[in-house]
Write a structure and sequence with these properties.
alpha/beta, 5-stranded mixed sheet, 3-stranded parallel sheet, 9 helices, 14 strands, about 15% strand
Length: about 350
């Protein structure tokens, strides 16, 4: 009778270990115990509370059957398998309600984290006056409310109602998320339009700022594209001078944003997007990738003379002068619309001829 301390040599408390110890008021369970068996405290009618240490990894669902005075099952804070809340036993994440103490009285509201009520979880809780089951509960175990004389629960109707409520709540959540996404798209588009406006005005710093504001709200292919355009537009170096890699960081950023735009898909400027990525690849000396991008441009527009010209540049820098000459001539046959580009092309054709002599 009274209080009992289990020796630290004990690792398991067996089935019916304290069977019908009606005078037992408290039990001190040491950290050596890992398992509490079935009906361990069956009919321990004077037991009012019990503390479960961190070491316990298994508690049989019937361990506390017949404990009509039990008001609190307390789990140690750092137990990895179980938890308790207001004296009620749960799994660690509080998604499963395992056992409600039979001596606990009054009204009870199950936490919203719970999705499942375990088998016989509330069995013979004769002092439980009412229970509030949240919409989150989607399954109730066998005989969960057996012998609860003050309760009248239609489990099938309850679960059906909860399912319907959950579906309504989920639909509302999806609609709210879609509305938020639509509003973000509207807000981001305003900044995107401003970025294009400043880009066309050649106010690149302000364009860059607006592009960042757009991307902070909502990343789309077109928004990544304008960001890449702005970065490229801020690069200012004489085209006819030898490039020594002083803008590699900028070209890598251009490449990065082009890749993000392509990963999103459905960019409204696919031809220019591939062209800009190809140009960045060429400038970074990734010539094979550059050629691949310019070929993608040609698939979209076979008459893009600059794509032909830049494929030729890639081949030329790899010292494949025959292939370079082929694409330089193709560019000339299509005809450049820019005098500087036309002049560059004729210079490159001349250089290829000299290299092939």
């Amino acid at each position: 009778s009274g209080d009992y301390t289990i020796p630290t040599s004990v690792t398991e408390i067996g089935k019916y270990a304290f069977y019908s110890c009606s005078s037992l008021k408290s039990v001190n369970i040491p950290n050596s115990v890992t398992s509490i068996g079935g009906s361990t405290f069956y009919k321990c009618s004077s037991l009012t509370s019990i503390n479960i240490p961190n070491s316990v990894t298994e508690i049989d669902k019937s361990a506390f059957d017949g404990c009509h005075s039990l008001k609190s099952i307390n789990i140690a804070e750092y137990n990895r398998y179980y938890s308790s809340d207001n004296g009620v036993l749960f799994n660690k994440n509080k998604t499963v309600l395992i056992c409600y103490p039979q001596g606990k009285s009054g009204d009870y509201t199950i936490p919203n984290s719970v999705t499942s009520i375990g088998k016989e979880a509330f069995a013979y809780c004769n002092s439980l006056a009412s229970i509030n089951i949240p919409n989150s509960v989607t399954s109730i175990g066998e005989d969960a409310f057996m012998g609860c004389s003050l309760l009248n629960i239609d489990i099938k109707s309850l679960l059906a109602e909860n399912k319907q409520k959950e579906e309504v709540a989920q639909k509302a959540k999806i609609e709210a998320a879609e509305a938020e996404k639509a509003q973000k798209a509207i807000d981001a588009k305003k900044y995107e339009d401003l970025a294009w406006k400043y880009y066309r005005m050649k106010e690149m710093n302000e364009a860059d700022k607006q592009a960042d504001l757009a991307l902070a709200i909502h990343g789309t292919a077109d928004m990544y594209f304008i960001k890449a355009r702005v970065i490229h537009g801020k690069i200012n170096w004489p085209r006819k001078e030898t490039y020594n890699g002083e803008y590699n960081t900028e070209f890598r950023n251009v490449l990065s944003y082009c890749n993000k735009a392509l990963s999103e898909g459905n960019c409204s400027e696919m031809e220019f997007l591939y062209f800009m990525r190809g140009y960045a690849n060429n400038m970074l000396r990734y010539y094979e990738d550059g050629r691949s991008d310019f070929h993608a441009v040609l698939r979209l527009n076979p008459n893009n003379e600059l794509a032909n010209y830049n494929i030729g540049v890639a081949y030329y820098n790899q010292e494949n002068y025959n292939m370079a000459l082929t694409y330089f001539k193709a560019a000339r046959e299509i005809g450049f619309s820019n005098k500087d580009d036309e002049s560059d092309n004729f210079d490159m054709i001349k250089k290829c001829g000299e290299k092939l002599k």
